[in-house]
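Can't attach files on this board, so I'm pasting raw text. These are the components:
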Amino acid sequence: MLFSQLIFTPEKSAPANATTINHKLLTQAGFVRQVMAGVYVYTPLGLRVLRKISDIVRKEMEGMGSSEILMSALSPKSNWQVTGAWDSVDVLFKLNSQTNKEYALGFSHEEVVVPLLKEVISSYRDLPKSVYQIQWKFRDELRAKSGILRGREFLMKDMYSFHATHEDFEDYYGKAKEVYLKTFERLGLDAKVTEASGGSFSEKISYEFMVLTDAGEDDILYCPDCGYCVNTEIATQGLTEGSECPKCKKTKMVGAKASEAGNIFDLGTAKSAPFGLTYVDGKNAEREIYMGCYGIGISRAMGIIVEKHADDKGIVWPENVAPFQYHLIALGEDEAILKKASEVYEKLIGQGKEVLFDERRNLSAGAKFAAADLIGCPNRLVISPKTGIEQIELKKRGSNDSRLIEINRLSL
Amino acid sequence: MLFSQLIFTPEKSAPANATTINHKLLTQAGFVRQVMAGVYVYTPLGLRVLRKISDIVRKEMEGMGSSEILMSALSPKSNWQVTGAWDSVDVLFKLNSQTNKEYALGFSHEEVVVPLLKEVISSYRDLPKSVYQIQWKFRDELRAKSGILRGREFLMKDMYSFHATHEDFEDYYGKAKEVYLKTFERLGLDAKVTEASGGSFSEKISYEFMVLTDAGEDDILYCPDCGYCVNTEIATQGLTEGSECPKCKKTKMVGAKASEAGNIFDLGTAKSAPFGLTYVDGKNAEREIYMGCYGIGISRAMGIIVEKHADDKGIVWPENVAPFQYHLIALGEDEAILKKASEVYEKLIGQGKEVLFDERRNLSAGAKFAAADLIGCPNRLVISPKTGIEQIELKKRGSNDSRLIEINRLSL
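---
Top answer:
Structure tokens for the assembled complex are below.
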């Protein structure tokens, strides 16, 4: 992509109301623009990162045998009355129509997915089933803050699984825990599996995938030795920072701020039973269906990645989620240099590489380097009067070392 | 994809409340499920078609030099008060928050895109600019009907262009008209450029891209000779069916029902002026900015395609937008046949083909063929005791001819 097509290019400073790293850097570098607290526009740069994260998550869910669908944001009030969520969930946005019908805007999709799957599940032969979607969610948050970490409108992957027995659910739940850790690793995030309450979803213990960051809203206690981790919300029996780890009993628990990148819930029959979603077993008996739900905040993950991968010059994207692999810069006004830079750009594009080409004229090397550092692509390529037209300089973002490459042999 | 992963498979009959071809076939074949009138879930099959259409539209917009962004569905009341749309647009969904703030759900995005672009446009050097998005829209329709043709929640591509002069706008507008016709052709739709009113967007004449279909909601008059076409809403001077064409004056105008697949609007300064979006020209004078907006209904296009490409057995997808290029069927219970079918599936996938593999056991040939006809992939491949394990039968959807291909030479 040409730099001029970005529309939103790096600015001199971060917005005054930004207090977190992700809000500051994502806005200043041109990945997002705030529409109102908790609601953002994604620019061409930001949209690329959202897609990279979505694609990684999508592949992992497909690997779990889940099928992608897309549920609606709107759904009728009646769905939410069945489970009582219409009256009990504070963050549920409610809409009134011209015809005086009431609708909900999905903050999660249990109330849509259960009646939906009821159409195709009736016998034990129809189980297990797993569906997921990557869809925008709406939550009427009292305080939306921390950039894209806590939004009123945010992108989420939510998966729902349906099982004939609790054992079958447990198998899938265990597999999901492993897949989640692998997914976050691919996103460049070191997530801790944390015991937490089921919140409005379930009475049971759920697992949150917590990433340590001061911008996070959760307080956790973790054992640096065995890895046991618990949300302080449910920490019992006087468990606090400095307590002995209740699991390994070897080390003292450490307290930290963290942000929840994902979660998995044992829903039991809490959502299936109210809708009468059951199945008939091999002996013609009606049985309850056990459900799990599994969330990953796609836009929040983008924010957490920036919290974890940044320095004083800007973002340092992990290779997997970077908007472009290469940031190509042409310096000076020498036509031969500029022509060669265009050739290199076309050549890399032809090789299937993702390249952002800063082709702007009459701009200092300092300004172009600062933009590249802010945007944070993993590899910076520079062609200038200093390199000449036969070589190009490659520098990794976050490293001070650079090396010269023969352009003729350029196959990165 | 394996048939068993579809989750929603072809049903014996269409839903009782479905009156249009797209509603009947898309539901019966398993592409969509209705949540409420005008609101649908897209299944794995349906989502594939939405993506195919989106990708074709995206490529054409990129070809016009437009940059993809993603705006929020939510935006603050204040944006909509600036243009008066808060009080004047009936179909605008309005939300109240816990903190007693009011928000709008985007039915179109002029009120978001103008303040957004104001951040990056100040000088003539910043013009022209064009951005687009593919985003779900919400409209509080009094009557949502005709399957996915008229929705309360629907997927749309909306592009916005910003120009220093009306001439520059006219150039881009003219180019858009050509690109739109090419886009619809790639989608398998024969669209007529139709003169229409600007509706709530503009006082000026706009152009609608109309596809003739009885399921459509618009009435148009067109000249079969020169192609002149006008929405009856704005047909003047006694122009009716049977009138002489006012353009070529050779033929009589024909009346028809049509569905609007896209539209382009000359917004003039109607949206830029209220937000004070202006630019400074080369002589330091402040100037008005001319805007255009350009819509394509992605989900509606999917519905129109089905209205136009179907027979009594089901959907006949044009190749470009089909969920899969190949529908592979294994017949009988012979293990050698079934094993060979799996090999063919893997081979085609390895060649980068998109294949739906009906691997279901204990099902009649008739049931599998009926499912293939309903779903409507362009090429049906059958391996059965009749073909043996060395040949496979290829039949085009919508044709009765079939031919045998040597499996060893299979490279479709």
